[in-house]
Amino acid sequence: MTEKSFQSPQKKGKIAVFLSGRGSNFLAIHDSVRKGVINAEISLVFSNKKQAPGLSHAQKRGLETLYLDPKEFKSKQDYDQKISEEIKKRKIDLICLAGYMKILTSDLCRKFENHIMNIHPALLPSFPGLHVQKKALEWGVRYSGATVHFVTADVDMGPIILQAVVPVFQDDTEESLSNRILEQEHKIYPEAVRLYFEGKLLIKGRRVYILS
Ligand code: GRF
After folding, report:
1. Does residue 120 carry a catalytic annotation?
2. Which of 4, 8, 94, 209 has its Cβ near the most Cβ atoms within 10 Å?
3. CB 39 within 8 A of CB 11
4. Phi, psi of 78 (to 5 degrees)
5. Whether the CB of 185 sits within 6 Å of ligand 1
């Protein structure tokens, strides 16, 4: 059986960032876009939270924002269907989940397969889900880090694009560990997006090859 493969497009792309909170990863991506490091524009910043600080940062930077209230939709399917329409309407090439605290329906994941990335504050496949720094400290791991991966319906388990490793110290708190990891997130997420629009990410099965 031949494995399914996908090569990211080499083009000036359109990005949508989905966020629910402070949006520091969004800002890191946008900084790289502004510097011309990423060959793309951010065409939409979307949130499920009206008060997300990331949304106001986006407005201040003159980007188009969209908030949809999940309570106004009959089901998660309907909510994600509306999202999907908004994405298609804008001809988005890549959705970057950046602290988007809502699980995407498997329909949406399938519709935009190979076109959604996420950043997770641990070395996947260790510690998927929430409260990951707490779990890392409880397990006494010596190293943790961050992972950028493609999104599939299997939460936090899609093909891994980039990872960065940080040490875990004995006197770390959730906060100190989170901050050390976040610093790395801000480097590897823009880098993964840059590679995507340079046509350098090749997905084969569950592995991502970085082309030179
Ligand atoms: C980050 O730690 C990211 O790894 C996780 O959610 C957090 C978002 O932070 N998915 P920010 O909103 O980008 O500052």
Report:
1. yes
2. 8
3. yes
4. -65, -40
5. yes
